[in-house]
Design brief:
The protein has about 140 residues and is mainly alpha-helical. The chain has helices spanning about 1-10, 30-45, 55-75, 80-110, 115-135. The protein contains five helices and no strands.
């Protein structure tokens, strides 16, 4: 949920103008707030022992759809919605697999998952902020 949250904030702040597209809802009054709450919930839930793997079918598909939505939103502001949706979905696949592998390596190095998970969160939030800034 971090990526849709970041993109929604970019739309709400006027960095991306999608007001005349089907994705205008990404900039509605409360969309960024709702997505922020969901992103924080996901960051917390990710640390729980019973949370399924991000590579399981359901979470993986949700990440692909979320990536496509983010890509489409960026693309809608630049008249290339379809291409950017495909690239967003591909980025979600790469991020899911790469993030899982990196976290597994860090967890092995730390001999615990929690420090790896927290470091992963810091990197993800930092990258989201950098990406939104790059959209300016």
């Amino acid at each position: 949920m971090l990526a849709p949250c970041a993109i929604s904030w970019a739309v709400w702040a006027g960095i991306l103008d999608v007001s005349q597209t089907p994705l205008a809802f990404m900039g509605f009054k409360y969309t960024h707030v709702i997505l922020t709450v969901l992103a924080i919930g996901e960051l917390i839930a990710d640390k729980l022992p019973f949370t399924p793997s991000r590579k399981a079918a359901g979470p993986f598909i949700a990440r692909i759809v979320s990536g496509a939505l983010c890509g489409a939103t960026v693309g809608a502001a630049r008249n290339s919605m379809f291409l950017m949706a495909v690239l967003g979905a591909a980025g979600a696949v790469a991020g899911t697999l790469g993030g899982a592998a990196a976290r597994a390596r860090m967890a092995a190095a730390f001999r615990r998952d929690l420090p790896a998970a927290l470091l992963e969160d810091v990197v993800a939030v930092g990258l989201a902020i950098l990406f939104v800034q790059a959209l300016r």
